[in-house]
Amino acid sequence: MTKQKKKAPAPEAGAAGEGVAGFEALGLHQLVLDAIRDAGYTTPTPIQREAIPLAQRGRDLIGLAQTGTGKTAAFTLPIIDRLIDGPRRTRALILTPTRELCVQVEESFRKYAKHAPIAMVAVFGGVPLEPQERKLRGGVDVVVATPGRLIDHLERQNVVFDDLEVLVLDEADRMLDMGFAPQINRIVSDIPNYRQTLLFSATMPPEVEALARKYLRKPVVVQVGVRSAAASTVTHAVYPVPREKKNALLVELLTQGKEHESVLIFTRTKQGADRVVRDLEEAGVRATAMHADKSQAQRMRALQDFKDGRINVLVATDIAQRGLDISGITHVINYDVPQQAEDYVHRIGRTGRAAREGDAYTFMAPDEIAMVRTIERVIGQPIPRISVPGYDFGTVAAD
Ligand code: AMP
Questions:
Q1: Ligand 1: which residue has its CA nearest to atom 21?
Q2: What CATH number corresponds to the domain at position 157?
Q3: Is any atom of ligand 1 closer than 6 Å to the C-beta of 288?
Q4: Assigned domain for 388 exists
């Protein structure tokens, strides 16, 4: 984009907590900041803090977030920021499952774009076509639509998407539940391939993963309201996290979930395994370490306790994995990235499922990025990244 952007001034020291300092740091246009101030927001929510910079950099994004997390502003604000000062063409489309959500999202656009010269329309069924038709033909920057009614307008050529830059699939899981997959397909076929796609969903069942694979390019996953690792909705993922925050992230993942699942964690060193066990126990999670300092009998007992569900978390070193019968275990966390790609494959295999479907999470510190890339080459597929606000080291966008 060549348009001149009036950048907001950097927040001044000591200004945090006053006005919209937290939003100013995101570099949003002054007219957007004015609307945020009018709305009374002072601080971005976690999904906004994480998703807005990624969206501004043009990344495709999967936002795993429920209503109430501020997810609407997480996509609305960067879209308005992008459209301000631009030509009046239809450059953003938001698809929603229901007319209620459609109206709500359009109201959000109206609220956050109140000082900006941006026109939008809500397009949904059950009401006459003509008023929507007039608005579409008059020219709008943003269309918020339910799929069925939008197709009616496309077929009447009331709107064309030749200049579309951003597509948002909001509440994608509900859209699929409601049987909208063919309509989404029809609509996307009218949109240029060179676009940014943002997908929001409360859950990530395989159908939504398939949808993301079809329409998104190298997406970054941002997950808020983290559930237990075991209950997490992405089954095979890498968490970018600085080394010193790995323990805190692990505790966060394992304590947020309601249900107690069994989780097998691999660390590179004995000391690492012991430290993880100590931190988990302090956080109230029963865990046992299994490494070369333990006798064979102790190891067998730990494994049995784990398999019988008496302990939820078993922490093993790379060495201890050899010769270990851990078949039937459903969840694996690689606290350190395995040194050998084969170990990664082996561990995922241990979950008794195919690599794609196995529940496996890998914590990746900055110095482990290269090893993850090697693993991705060996398994022949990219592993989705999950960015947890407050833990990510912020380089996922550079992938
Ligand atoms: P959503 O998750 O998008 O449905 O938003 C939930 C509610 O939070 C809406 O009523 C928003 O107006 C409000 N909201 C969104 N972002 C913020 C923020 N940064 N600070 C305070 N309230 C917000």
A1: 41
A2: 3.40.50.300
A3: no
A4: no
pLDDT tens-digit readout, 161-207: 999 999 999 999 999 999 999 999 999 999 999 999 999 998 888 88
Q: For 361, which DSSP code? A: E
Domain presence at residue 13: no
Instruction: Measure 69 CA to ligand 1 centroid, in angstroms.
Output: 7
> Does 246 map to a domain?
yes
**Residues 169 and 294 reside in one and the same domain:** no
Please give the angle made by the CA atoms of 216, 95 and 112, to the nearest 5 degrees. Answer: 100
* Three-state secondary structure string covering 139-182: CCCEEEECHHHHHHHHHCCCCCCCCCCEEEECCHHHHHHCCCHH
- Asked if residue 289 belongs to a domain, the reply is yes
What atom of ligand 1 comes closest to residue 43's alpha carbon?
19
Token duo for residue 359: 């529940």
66 and 184 co-located in one domain? yes
Query: What is the whole-number distance in angstroms between the Cα of residue 245 and the centre of ligand 1?
Result: 28
Predicted TM-score (pTM) of this structure = 0.67
Measure 48 CA to ligand 1 centroid, in angstroms. Answer: 10
* Domain hosting residue 94, numbered range: 23-224
69 Cβ inside 6 Å of ligand 1: yes
Q: What is the pLDDT of residues 89-115, one digit of tens each?
A: 999 999 999 999 999 999 999 999 999
